[in-house]
Design brief:
alpha+beta, globular, Alpha-D-Glucose-1,6-Bisphosphate, Chain A, domain 4
Length: 152
């Protein structure tokens, strides 16, 4: 059974800053609750270590489509099923809407129960709230990557 979670938020920052911050995958543990670490091994490949329901998992994810100031789309490689897309839309010159959609395959009883109760979706909303605070409190992004990827 695949679980789908969606969340969106408006961030008080220009689209370029919001997009650029999202491309800094190694910063994700600072605002994503279940992410322990991400290592970017190439422009389009990342290695994730996450803890979900007390179970630590590792997987690689390939960025399959990325367009600056528009979206980033990824998919896990190997057996673990994890895909996602984050889209960025300017609301005003200094405000950006971030829309997140992820699909994953819960494996353990705790993961399946959490998905069934939409706890994963609540966690995604909280992660976006922390992302919003992270960039708004800093007042700028920590870096950025402006390349395009079209593997999918």
């Amino acid at each position: 059974m695949t679980s789908t979670m969606t969340a969106d938020i408006e961030v008080d920052a220009p689209i370029r800053a919001v997009y650029d911050q999202w491309t800094q995958f190694e910063d994700f543990p600072q605002f994503m609750g279940s992410v322990n670490s991400i290592t970017q091994t190439t422009d389009d490949l990342t290695h994730w270590t996450v803890s979900i329901g007390g179970v630590e998992r590792e997987f690689d994810a390939e960025i399959v489509d990325q367009v600056p100031d528009d979206h980033v789309e990824w998919a896990s490689t190997g057996e673990r099923v994890h895909t996602g897309r984050v889209a960025f839309t300017p609301v005003t010159d200094d405000r950006t809407r971030v829309e997140l959609r992820m699909e994953w395959e819960p494996e353990t009883f705790v993961e399946k129960a959490g998905a069934g109760l939409n706890l994963d979706e609540a966690a995604a909303r909280m992660d976006l709230e922390r992302f919003k605070s992270f960039i708004e409190e800093r007042g700028r992004e920590t870096g950025g990557w402006r390349g395009e990827i079209h593997n999918g």
